[in-house]
Design brief:
It contains eight helices and 31 strands. It is mainly beta and 432 residues long.
């Protein structure tokens, strides 16, 4: 976290003497209250790289566990500061829109309400030194007891006012059954460029008083929180069944298959790599110039649906043996895009379109260029464009959009229980 933000947090922190909780003792209440009202996936420390949160058993799944089960999630990240640091964490309960709920910590957590990330290993035989941290949770000292949306807050253990990163995850009850399908839209322009998710929710009528007001759903494409649709209420209600099948809702831009990058080895060039150079003391990977794909036909290919996988060829411990390398991205420009702002993005950088992912136009070669520090592995990526007039971000001007594109979808159903004062997550279904 930069010094200005830390200073701001300290300046506005409120210290409460009466009714002190565990979080207050460790400085977390003031700090967490300075986070945005809507909690997002964000890294606050510039030395922290390659943050990943997901199922401990399936690397490409959404971070979802069932309440009361022994299922665990796994958090991994690298610290490139060159120092050995200790990190603590806590969990924050959120409503369906990812704002902090009105519940107190004691209502949604059992145990001490905080924990420590104990597993830390130094990189081995790499040009770039880092420490890889791993957390498997929930743990007994910080155990969520209610369903819903949660944010994992990681902080500096020696200075809990210093937030390191935040990550979203889900705890579901699986109290409702979901039947769903993804298909080509029936009519209009989306029929060629979109996909529609239709689903029904089967529920116990004794539990729901007013399903039109108490039930909502969220559909997420490819584990991307920037590709998320909120379904405020069912289109039709039958006895024990809610249908979310409005012909004009649940429609996503299908996008295109992702561009792929293989940097598992520094010994040979893979498909999109033009050159691998060792510029003492680090490796540099120069990619072949990418082309705009908006006006080209659809081409089927296998990808990771925007995700990534850390790996190094012939490594025994990929998380600590994979090196960090400088990757040089290039995109051919045209008159249409010369005045726009182009970003390279993917799950590896939380789909950000900011200064850290902004490409610069090189007038000498006519290419948009950017160099990113990335850990060895397999990556999906794409290019975003920001319209200079409207400020809107659109990846389809650079990538195209086709109904045939293979995408993953996840459906989350929420019960707005007014008597329990929080949004229960009562159903979850992934669609492959």
């Amino acid at each position: 976290m930069n010094s200005q933000l830390v200073s701001g947090l300290r300046k506005f922190m409120i210290v409460i003497v009466i009714g002190i909780t565990t979080a207050d003792v460790f400085g977390l209440t003031g700090t967490i209250n300075q986070l945005p009202d809507t909690l997002i996936n964000k890294v606050y420390d510039r030395h922290i790289c390659t943050v990943w949160l997901g199922s401990a058993t399936w690397e490409f799944s959404m971070p979802v566990i069932e309440a009361g089960s022994d299922q665990q999630l796994e958090l991994r990240f690298d610290d490139l500061s060159g120092e050995s640091r200790s990190f603590g964490y806590t969990l924050v309960h959120c409503d369906a829109s990812w704002k902090r709920s009105q519940l107190s910590e004691s209502e949604y957590l059992s145990g001490f309400g905080r924990g420590t990330i104990r597993e830390a290993r130094q990189s081995f035989n790499t040009t770039y030194f880092y420490i890889n941290y791993r957390l498997a949770f929930p743990e007994a000292d910080c155990l969520p007891v209610l369903s819903g949306n949660y944010a994992l807050i990681v902080y500096n253990d020696s200075d809990p006012d210093e937030i390191i990163l935040t990550r979203r995850f889900f705890v579901t009850e699986n109290a409702m059954t979901i039947e769903a399908s993804a298909r080509q839209p029936a009519y209009g322009q989306p029929r060629q460029t979109g996909q529609q998710v239709l689903f029904s929710v089967l529920y116990n009528e004794r539990d729901i008083r007013d399903p039109q007001k108490e039930i909502s759903a969220v559909v997420i494409q490819n584990n991307r929180f920037d590709k998320m649709l909120l379904m405020n209420k069912p289109y039709s209600v039958q006895s024990g069944r809610l249908d979310f099948n409005d012909p004009d809702e649940g429609i996503f831009s299908a996008g295109n298959e992702f561009r792929t990058l293989d940097i598992k080895s520094m010994r040979y060039q893979t498909e999109n790599v033009a050159a691998i150079e060792f510029r003492n003391p680090y490796y540099h990977v120069v990619l072949k110039p990418d082309k705009v794909r908006a006006n080209k036909p659809y081409f089927s290919k296998t990808d990771l649906n925007g995700s990534y996988y850390i790996d190094k060829e012939k490594a025994d411990e990929r998380h600590i043996e994979a090196d960090y390398v400088y990757v040089h991205f290039n995109l051919e420009s045209s008159a249409v895009y010369s005045d726009g702002r182009i970003y390279v993005t993917g799950a590896f950088n939380d789909w950000k379109a900011d200064e850290s992912s902004l490409m610069k136009l090189n007038p000498e070669n006519g290419l948009f260029e950017i160099t990113l520090l990335m850990k060895q592995g397999l990556y999906d990526y794409c290019f975003f464009m920001k319209n200079p007039q409207s400020g809107l971000i659109d990846e389809y001007e650079t990538e195209g959009s086709f109904y045939e594109t293979e995408n993953d979808y996840s459906i989350f159903v929420y019960f707005h229980d007014q008597f329990k004062r929080f949004d229960r997550l009562t159903g979850y279904l992934p669609i492959k």
